[in-house]
Design goal:
The structure holds two protein chains of two kinds. Chain A is of the alpha/beta class. Chain A is built from eleven helices and ten strands. Chain A has a single domain, classed as P-loop containing nucleotide triphosphate hydrolases (Rossmann fold, 3-Layer(aba) Sandwich). In chain A, a hairpin with a 2-residue loop joins β1 and β2. The radius of gyration of chain A is 19 Å and the shape is globular. Chain A starts with a helix and ends in a 5-residue tail after the last helix. Chain B is flat, with a radius of gyration of 26 Å. A two-stranded antiparallel sheet of chain B has the order 1-2. Chain B is mostly helical. In chain B, α3 crosses α5. Classes of the chains: A alpha/beta, B mainly alpha. The interface between A and B is medium-sized, with 30 and 23 residues.
């Protein structure tokens, strides 16, 4: 398939009839119940008062302009921001009813349930096999290691490409393959939720399409939250879409805010807020 | 296509007629002279060493390294006991300093509270700034007596069945004191190189491991060590090189002696300490030649260690750009 072909295919998929209509929200099972979340770096707010629910077995997209706190938001969901010394937060994040930001919560245990794929592919400097096996071993899933590695690579649509060179360094893979390896690594440990922070931003259109297909195929088993600056991507993969925007305070302060959160269909066709409309129609800034 | 010829406007030079500008020529000349003179200097030192050691080389040949007699009265010389002393002190110093240095570096980069990292790093690096003669004095006055009165008897009573821990020394000077002094001297260098290496591990990699639900130690084992291992190996070898060559502090605390024995608490000498201690008092030509021969052995030893370090860096660096980058910095530090 040539690049031009894939580019022409991509917009068609926006209106593809494959998207099933969502049941009413009260019938969906909540995974996250986020209430009045404010996150700060060094005292300055990155996001303010974000409240939204994330539902099981759906793909939820977080869209918005650069600097609106999309990444900050998802990094709160698996306590990844704990690693940043100046970080602090208020509000609550309930995961299946449990406040994961409470003092007695072990962030390591949280991250075992809530996996993450990053913007830049970050395979470990190990073999392809060991990249997957590492997480399994750490999580005590040592039975049938070979089978689990194969299953994860198959799910990530990478098995056929790498099955003959499992012992080779993962750094020899292409960018798209590395990112699929990172997805395989994340799903191998059977998390409940997979957070993806702009997973396709450094990939070409073909690799991007394969990762989007992957999410579509895997969502029966997982709940995905994907940050993207690419609106077509959100429109293609997401069931629910949250639009974040930048608000400005009196003294030149800027912070991110949740503007609108609804079914993707609705956000892109009849947005309820003028700012959302401006953004999704490309009239932003 | 139109013509490739570039129109030459008045006041502009055409592309043809490449010429060397004076400043470039000067830079090239100075840099070439500097680079060549370094190589020439090494060659000259080696030549001078071989020439002055020649009486000893021609008399003892390569068997010099296997003889353990050093008898200025009978004029019989051999390097074996000093080679033994050098290897013994350096290997033990490295065995103690290596793990400690890696632990210090890990603490400073991953584990210590942030407010503590800066001051402790500065302190560790200050340790490297202490002149070796001062460490040697401290070794004689403070460390040596402490080891002889407290540590050595204790080690002897606990582990005396191992020949290494024989009867404690009577004075402050012993191989053991030299080992501890060398440990203190190479610790800050190895620790600060390892610290640099650990700092160079990309944050994405660490986050990737932590996002899988690893603990900090699991993350360090999975990401930090593999990423930095080539550099760590090179840092250890460079620390070893430093231990081999250290003369002053070792001379002050090692005690002297030419008997090859396993007991760490007895006196001994290293190649470097023997040269430093005896060169002034050497009274026969053959003794001077033998001392220079020791110097030549030390030079070869150090060169081999250095080449080994470069080889290790290249081995580990292959296929891992990041490691070779980090290790290049190690090379630059050395």
């Amino acid at each position: 398939m040539s690049t031009t072909e894939s580019v022409t295919i991509a917009p068609m998929r926006i209106d593809a009839p494959q998207r099933q209509t969502l049941p009413p929200r009260e019938r969906l099972e909540q995974v996250f119940d986020i209430d009045e979340l404010t996150a700060r770096y060094g005292g300055r707010p990155a996001i303010k008062s974000v409240s939204l629910d994330i539902y099981k077995n759906l793909v939820t997209a977080i869209i918005g302009p650069s600097g609106c706190g999309k990444s900050t938001f998802v990094r709160c969901l698996n306590r990844m921001n704990d690693l940043i010394p100046s970080f602090s937060m208020e509000g609550s994040i309930r995961y299946h009813g449990q406040d994961i930001c409470a003092d007695d919560i072990d962030p390591v245990a949280v991250r075992r349930r809530i996996g993450m794929v990053f913007q830049r592919p970050n395979p470990f400097p190990k073999s392809i096999y060991d990249n997957i096996a590492f997480g399994l071993k750490v999580n005590g899933m040592k039975d049938n290691l070979d089978g689990r590695v194969e299953a994860a690579l198959t799910k990530a649509a990478l098995w056929d490409e790498v099955k003959d060179r499992l012992k080779e360094s993962a750094l020899g893979l292409s960018g798209g393959q590395q990112q699929r390896l990172c997805i395989a690594r994340a799903i191998a440990v059977e998390p409940d939720v997979v957070l993806l922070d702009e997973p396709a931003s450094s990939l070409d259109p073909i690799a991007t399409a394969s990762i989007e297909d992957l999410m579509h195929d895997l969502k029966q088993d997982y709940t995905f939250v994907i940050v993207t600056h690419n609106m077509q991507q959100a429109a293609r993969v997401a069931d629910m879409t949250a639009f974040f925007s930048i608000s400005r305070g009196a003294e030149g302060q800027r912070w991110g805010e949740l503007v609108e959160y609804d079914a993707t269909e609705k956000i892109f066709t009849q947005p309820g807020d003028k700012r959302t409309e401006d953004y999704v129609t490309g009239r932003f800034g | 296509m139109a013509s490739i010829d570039t129109p030459v406007r008045p006041g502009r030079r055409s592309f043809t007629g490449r010429r060397l500008r004076p400043a470039d020529a000067l830079l090239q000349g100075v840099a070439a002279i500097a680079a060549t003179s370094a190589a020439v200097l090494v060659g000259l030192i080696a030549y001078k060493l071989v020439r002055d050691a020649w009486p000893a080389i021609s008399r003892y040949g390569i068997a010099f390294v296997a003889h353990d007699i050093w008898d200025p009265v009978a004029n019989h010389y051999g390097a074996a006991s000093f080679l033994f002393g050098t290897v013994l002190t350096s290997v033990f110093a490295l065995a103690i300093a290596g793990p400690l240095a890696i632990a210090i570096a890990l603490y400073l980069t991953e584990l210590a509270p942030r407010a503590l990292r800066g001051p402790v790093t500065a302190l560790v690096e200050t340790l490297a700034a202490i002149p070796s003669v001062v460490i040697g004095l401290w070794g004689i006055l403070v460390l040596g007596p402490f080891l002889a009165h407290h540590v050595e008897p204790w080690l002897h009573s606990a582990l005396g069945f191992i020949p290494l821990f024989g009867s404690p020394s009577t004075g402050p000077q012993s191989i053991f004191t030299a080992i501890v002094v060398l440990t203190i001297m190479i610790l800050p260098i190895v620790a600060s190189i390892c610290r640099e290496l650990f700092l160079s591990v990309p944050r994405e990699l660490k986050e990737g491991a932590l996002a899988l639900g690893t603990t900090r130690w699991e993350m360090i084992r999975a990401v930090v060590f593999p990423y930095a291992r080539g550099g760590i190996a090179a840092a250890l070898i460079l620390g070893f090189g430093r231990a081999i060559g250290e003369a002053i502090a070792v001379t002050q605390v090692v005690g002297g002696g030419t008997i090859i024995q396993a007991n760490l608490f007895s006196g001994g000498d290293t190649l470097a300490s023997k040269i430093a201690a005896s060169y002034q008092g050497a009274d026969s030509n053959i003794q001077v030649a033998a001392l220079i021969y020791l110097g030549l052995i030390l030079l070869v030893f150090s060169l081999v260690v250095n080449l080994l370090a470069q080889w290790v860096v290249r081995q580990f660096g292959r296929g891992q750009g990041a490691v070779s980058r980090a290790s290049a910095r190690v090379g630059a530090t050395a």
